[in-house]
Specification:
The chain is of the alpha+beta class. Among the domains are: about 90 residues, Alpha-Beta Plaits (2-Layer Sandwich); about 60 residues, 2-Layer Sandwich (Alpha-Beta Plaits), CATH 3.30.70; about 80 residues. It contains ten helices and 18 strands. The strands form seven sheets. A four-stranded antiparallel sheet has the order 6-7-5-10, covered by helices on one side. The protein has a four-stranded antiparallel sheet with strand order 12-13-11-16. The longest helix is centred in the last third of the chain and has 38 residues. Keywords: Coiled coil.
Amino acid sequence: MAPASNSDEATPTTDMDTSTLPGEDIDPSDVTEQRGWMVCYRNRSQKRLQALRAEKPSQGTVSPYPIKQGTAKHALRLPPLPREHVKVVFRLQGGLDVSKISAAILRSATLVAAGLTKLQTSEDILRPNAARNVFVMSTPSIERAKTYSMVDQLNIENRAYSTHPYVASPEDTCKGVIHAIPPEDTPQDIIDNVVNSANPPEIHARRMGAANTALIAFDRPKVPLLIYFGGAEFRCYIHKQKSEACLACGAVGYRADVCPNPTPSRCEGCGQNTSEDNPHSCTPKCPLCKGDHPFGDKSCTRRFKPPSFSSKPSNIQIPRQDGAQHPSAPRGKTTPPGFRKQRAAADPPASTEEKPGATRASGAAYGPKHPSQKINNSTSSKVTWAEMVAPGTSPPSSYSEVAELKELLLNTLEENENFSAKVAELQKQIATLTNANVADTNGPIDSDSNSPMESEFVLASNSLCSPSKEESNCSSIYVTKVEFMAGIEKISKEVKEAMSPSYKIF
């Protein structure tokens, strides 16, 4: 605070580190704006902070906007185990905390108890589940899965823990439950009573814990209404997975039989200490919803686990060619989101004239168009048969290409006919030369002569002449045998070249 009016002059005394000014003490009530005092900006901000601190709720009150801490629901999701594997779930009893034991130690203890080696189980995968305090052994072998399911004890860190493993149902099955089954039935008896010709095929059944309830897995999308258990008719209900909570320690996620920190003196109803030195009146308290009812009550809002939705996209509605809407598609959406927008961006506009929807950016992607606009667009992009055959209209480019191909085909056929006629004529000449009257004008051939054999042949110069005109119009031509064979080869070559195709039609 500093006075606005001039005060009495005072001589300051300055030391090395501090400087003091002589003055007189003033009561805080006298420091007001009416008496000429002004508040500094720094003091204003401090007063605001003090006011906010005074309005902050105390430690006992609940803030209207509580800070949410990270839970197991928001933890990193691990990749799924192979679908073709068989999953065996191990529930260890005796106070073992799976989160504090290495997965390698759990796997070694499991292999020793099952009598298997590391080489035999090289494809098996062990995955602990700390939220449920269990671990899963995934194996592609059914024989090893049966071996794992028969293990009843694990030795971990020089201590024996009893376990009750079971084979989990496959992921692509639906589950149902039946109640009031005989308590003396063994697991094999339950399977024999359920798997019969009266029930749907491809099913599996097991007892749920120690209760008289059997869990049945069906290899089909729906649960049947009735199940025949050993010839007796049972009503089958859809299985809804319940939320688990431990009544021994109050934690949520696992049951009391696998509790890592059991508290014997804890009340299962209200959770308070029930020792002899601390008597109490029990008021039930639900560990799931914190309601005033016991755990597992039908009025609990969190009794069942919420359904797990797949992260994969739902079925995409593919637009039909006739523009009709798929029955399962919602109204007003005949195409997937962004389909029209992508198609409009890919197809160039036909003209630069303004259209009714040109003022909106990508108007084709927002809402349906006017019916008149749809008709105009469809008629402008399609060519009808009447327009095609009408006089004075030019066919599309594809039809002009077809016409050119037809013309080329006709020309090729005409040339082939000409070549065929030429080949026939050449073949006739070859036959005439072969069957011609050959005369040896040099006499008999001397067999002792070393000179090459050059006998002469007398041929008609024009083989096409008629016999009546042979003496008057045709003259004789004398050729040797070598010249005769060379002429035959030349004619054969011309025939082959004539028979080779000159055009290729695709």
